[in-house]
């Protein structure tokens, strides 16, 4: 190849001799070739468009679909589930935490994982302590998922594994989850949990698994469901008895609310103005966590009151 | 070399060849690796035909909880004993039913129809509330001579469920069926 | 075969072929399957089958009613029983975590005999007949040799049928050594009730109507004996009555959950509650705002009085006169203003109650403290009145026929107790923490056989390694436990008992509502293949010993003994279950889980105070009598008091009084005072074996570590950061713990959560694990109450 | 006219490495392969045992992998964007630089995308993104933009490669079958060449908005959440600037290595480094400007949740990397590049290495401190990356370097024909262009108005930056 370097510049179109022969009718008619190129581009563009548009063209999730007539508190209107947690009643016993763990087959983290901060608590206990001895203030806030009406986690999920269902529950379909953890980072309450590894269901621990709730594998996100399976059960019971589900049926329905010895947790339908929850939501003590973010949480906290307040 | 004449074709040929190969490999993999149900062996040669067509029994006579519980459930041996306390025929398996009962054991029927663990399915909802017939899913059991050894509802994937739900106006909310 | 080929293929090729192309590779066939073990009987007939079984929780003594969901043969959830007045459907974390106990991987499933050195951890499974036969032959020999008094039962049950059976056994066999754990838990409160009220039981409270609660160290919402009931009550008192809200004041050195949740927290110097109570009493009397009617008519010893023998005695008024708020401030560091305010608030918001807890009275001045706090209730007129302090009425259980002991039994039972209760600790009912020293010294007589009934003293009693040494010295150690623990390691026999979810037991809860209640504990699932209730073992043991012991146990089994007593409740024909026959009654009780006879009889003053005077005694004549019996004359008593370092003298010993606390370890060598406490997760037997309790979110990331809490300023001074390993040394032992910085710990003290430690317990370790291993044996010199807040410690950063 | 065979400069050093490698090459390749093997082993561990093998936890749900993702995507901006901008701007000195830049784009992009896949809890469900994709999610935007950018960059790399493949084919160097295939029968005819140049310029224009969109949507992944410190309108442009900044640094390091390894001092000349360094200088200044902007606004706003993460960087646990990044990554390079003496090859390499390391730290400091301080009061998060994360990161870097090395051994790393074309076409064009810049010269001044008209081509330096 070294010899070529000295070749005269003035001979730009000099194909290699061995190959030059058949290139004589070199240029096929321009039009077909151009058309071919255009066709290629068109095909490419169409492919790209299809790729981009495919997700859009898919039928939308069934959110808007009419439900089968389902008896709900307050008639045929769809319930919008919410929860009130009265911090003045709560004594931070964490019975709700353990009840939730057992009910929902939430795995035990173990020493190593706990130390790494990987414990899973669908119902968690947020605690703060401020001040210096002896001027101290302490707060204990049981925190389930807030089931925001405007949930930041739902907006970011790339595969629709999380969505807000027709009754306001922010659901997590772990069978769809790809484990990107965008939702966990997007949740301003840090109330979504990732299975960092396969949960350790030892032979003994498996006995305690609730058959109504699936266990989750490694690599997916899980979260509080407002004990959806218990709502379903209550609804089926009511239906079997030929009546509508009432506020009394659901008042202490989720495992946390059921367990609370202080009766601090009230579950119910925010769409039903008569429900106890709706009444509590009107309380001057009612606040929601980080309301300023515009997430519209459906978990309502009732502030601690002062003596003689 | 003549190869340089129609290089586009060569590229195309190469690509098509590669695609064909990949497709073939996938097909082979799919066929050989696809999970297939294998037939199970039932402990007793139970004939649905004899009981349903012959004796005119209803499904719910044995699968008692079908209208009230998520599970249709297998009948306990004591149901069998209501008729088979005394010999009813000459089938060699019939005395074995009594043997189980005498030993205080349940007949170890093997369950064949299964849904994945993250799916919630309620027989009661479908039978009691939606008024569906058993045969709509389970087929003509009144003609089944031999006990069931393979899943009868082989094609039951999520699309099937959702299509039917859509048709009947039932909810397709994910939470409705997933747990 | 196909599955195997497929899996094999995947294993070989999966990773190489690209994980992304073969979804689910390396996972089980159905990646979504709810993985659970095969059903117990292997038949799918049980699919979807489930039931709820009512029972009574056994994770603490509170006796909350529970219902257990049994799905497909497995117990999968515990919930509160709404019918039970103790908890009305609620249930705390301990109760919820009970399944961890039931399905614990370390369950002992058959009786074991030691197979090797003590503590080697080598066991051989034996049959029940063999085990009971061998134990019986040892007991028979001892009795024959006249050493029957050396048989000791450490009983983890302060009440209940099993305890009664053991008591009966020892009565018939002939030993005084039936020791419970109350000296290390609620002993102070119990003695105050015994000596002032005349009732040997801790009080109940009428929470429905109380309007002011002053808790002295009472960790009401954590480890108070009735935390769940109280949680319910506080919820009602705060938000259940529109326009009225009860004030909770918590007095404690450590800023606990209770302190944070209280309306007011009053920080105080450790072990000085008594002085504060006397100070409040002072203000009440000085300002003339105490309940003069009650004091005049229903109490004894408030004013100075003269005895029948003509001796003048001091009255409670004289004692109170000495506790001016300024002096109290100097002792407790509670501002005098606060003392005055608290006194007035209590009077302004009657009915008000003052509560003490194990923590408050658990000091070397425990009895005086407990009496001072209890006396406050009397000054406020809060005894036996709506919203005040009640005496729990017992359920009308029938009693068994009395034991007819033979001479040997009588002689044995009359021997002095090995723990010194009633002897070296004249006012004590029990003093379990001093038992190891008696064993090791062999005085007054050697301990020969030791039965650990639901008791794990190595882990849950102070004294560090002394317990291990003591267990090694006793000839025969038998432990009843469903799980291996730190004490079973040193036992000769481990006899597995079904857990509380698998056994029969009528349960009378810790006093809570005042009116009689009775729960029935029943098996929710079948007990494991080879376990036996302790009650059955006692009966079989007695039978094996033959008469005269066997004569006291005329039943075929434990169930018969239970039925005999339940008969009394049925025959009383009161309460929530009225049935014509005992059998029907029991069946109904099985369905309901609880029997109750609502309504507390207020205003029944007749017999309300079964004391010598028939009144509430500020001046306890029972104490006076006991002291007189223990010390022949004044000089021997004086000598003893001096030797014990007691500063109180004379009548004050019988009155609520203040005694400066003593601590194990000098202030120079051991600069930190350990404030040991039980958190909300402390279940029966600790926390360490139940992961769900260990991992409570409140424990944070260090949940699995054994912790010591330091004030950040102390930690900073020592160069310790949160999470660092620190060495904690006390006169009783040393241990490596993890530092946890907590601004709520009083500077100069260190918080020590109890119940943590390693799991499973390791055989052969001579050091006592867990927080108790660090606590020195310090007791109230007279009353034998264990001083939980009586140990000083040296804390340094671990290199 | 553009020759496939005739060149006015020595192409020997360019063609020499093709198809063969020296001892150094094999040693380096072996070393990189070993690092890669460790990375693959680490990933297999992670795949089998789950993301628990990493140091991530609640609330630090993202860590090194997401930093790598942003970092690699940033590096990828080196090439295509820079070469496209220079091409569109007719900066003639770009000619020897473009190829090595474009290659960086393709490979860096691959590893950027791979970093996200590595970060997935369920990589086996990757295709769900297409099957069930939700276009409302910024991740989908990323998938679209990155795949478009990857396709575009591949085409943009491939188009200028066609004539060079033809050269290799014709000279029968290396894998002739491959070059034959890739050359698509290119013979350098006028029409072929014209068409090639047309499409190259189309791609050059197309690729610029695509490239900008890519890093903007990468920023959106953070900015669309409510996390303190991420939820910022400036994040898109900030990421784009950071990307070009780090990309340039990466490019200069690559160029310096290539120049040294292949003895291309005569082709990749000091002037190229000088010119790139000037762009880098501008980017450094921009980067400082943006960083100043972000932190000033955050600090003056003094919102507690944001301040928690800011203070963690300024005075807390991350103070050392943060100030190291500010000083070592921004200020020192600014000084070095400001002076002509600093814009030598050595100076450029020093500055670039500093910048590259700092930019990785910068990405890390965007991800981690914010997650350590979530909005709700929470005991401060901890994050200690494990060996798995470091190994996978090292493996990715090694694989990137190895691929780059292999490419340089298979294809000419300097675009031969483009350089030649510069000689053939650009010089007269520049002359003409320059003429256009000058005041119109009256006809009577004569035709020899420009004194450089007749000078030999080799005697002139390129003057257009």
Give structural attributes:
heterotetramer, A: 309 residues, Alpha-Beta Plaits, globular, D: 465 residues, mainly alpha, Formate dehydrogenase/DMSO reductase fold, disordered C terminus
Structural commentary:
- The complex is a heterotetramer of chains A (309), B (179), C (799) and D (465).
- Chain A is 29% helix and 15% strand.
- By secondary structure, chain A is an alpha+beta fold.
- Chain A has one domain: Alpha-Beta Plaits (2-Layer Sandwich), CATH 3.30.70.
- In chain A, the strands form 4 sheets. A 4-stranded mixed β-sheet of chain A has the order 8-1-10-9. A two-stranded antiparallel sheet of chain A has the order 2-3.
- In chain A, strand 2 and strand 3 form a beta hairpin.
- The longest helix of chain A has 28 residues.
- Chain A is globular.
- Among the domains of chain C are: 223 residues, Rossmann fold (3-Layer(aba) Sandwich), CATH 3.40.50.740; 201 residues, Dimethylsulfoxide Reductase, domain 2, CATH 3.40.228.10; 126 residues, Barwin-like endoglucanases.
- In chain C, strand 2 and strand 3 form a beta hairpin.
- The longest helix of chain C is centred in the first third of the chain and has 17 residues.
- The radius of gyration of chain C is 27 Å and the shape is globular.
- Chain D is mainly alpha-helical.
- Chain D is globular and about 70 Å long.
- The C terminus of chain D is likely disordered.
- Chains in contact: A-B, A-C, A-D, B-C, B-D, C-D.
- The interface between A and C is large, with 70 and 78 residues.
